Amino acid sequence: MAKKNYAFYPGCSSQKGASGSNFATSIGVMCDKLEIQLNEIPDWNCCGASIGYGEGGELPRLALNARNLALSAQHLPGQDMVSGCPACWLATRETAERLNEHSDLMAETNVALKEAGLTFKGGVKARHIVEVLIEDVGFAGMKAPVVKPLQGMKIAGYVGCQTNRPFGIAGESFENPLYLDKMIETVGAEAVSSFDQKVTCCGGALAFSEPEKSQKQIRDIVESAYDHGAEMIVTPCQLCQANVEIYQAEINKKHGTKLAMPVVYYSQLMSVAYGGTLKQAGLDGHLIQPNRLQEIAGK
Prior knowledge:
Elements: E1 4-9, H1 21-33, E2 36-40, H2 58-75, E3 81-83, H3 86-101, H4 103-114, E4 126-128, H5 129-143, E5 154-157, H6 179-186, E6 190-191, H7 206-209, H8 211-227, E7 232-235, H9 238-246, H10 248-255, E8 263-265, H11 266-273, H12 291-297
Parallel strand pairs: 1-2, 1-3, 3-4, 5-6, 5-7, 7-8
Helix pairs in contact: 1-11, 2-3, 2-4, 3-4, 5-6
């Protein structure tokens, strides 16, 4: 079967040695098994993420993302531009849609891009890799390569906010999206359907500026997973994964709790279920060890 080709925008956190590098590792294994070819966009730049909404103004933020879109169109014509990071996806999709809809913004942005020898003419579709999995592969297609079903595992699917709002996954509820639960079930695990924190914000960058508020959010997320019998949290978001895993230790110190809930990516579940090793699934880079998943990967 011919592989489906996509222009791939990794984003900063998925670079080698960065906080989400284990996500990138597992994405590679997952996509190989699903006949998905991710073609990295040459010389891509940071999307600006949340800092792009600060003092710099609208045009620099749009220009940052338009540059990536222009590079995608130039080097990988006809391919949808796919991001694994929700923040990157939001920034890129917003830019693509706004420039396609507003000719004045397109013209202003292209004045900026001219300095880099680029022009964006529109037409590049910005997608999240979860959209590719659901819309182009399908749940049956995701289930087909499973050789190590994760039977007996009870997992809380934590969607977070950026993959869910403002765009979301087509056809899904903003209050109770089910796609992550379905993805958990395709690899043989049990999704905790009663998990009531699946779209709660982890606090994002408030982890630095207002840690008490962020840690209250994180504690609620983790305690809800425990309360509903989950042994692991799974997320599609690099920032959610980092915040919810890293700050459990600090919450324990402050409040005398004993939180130790593993937090992994959906791609790591799928990589293990598809026969990937512990290293291939990026399970060697966690602070809270996902022991059950590591055991299955080692079999």
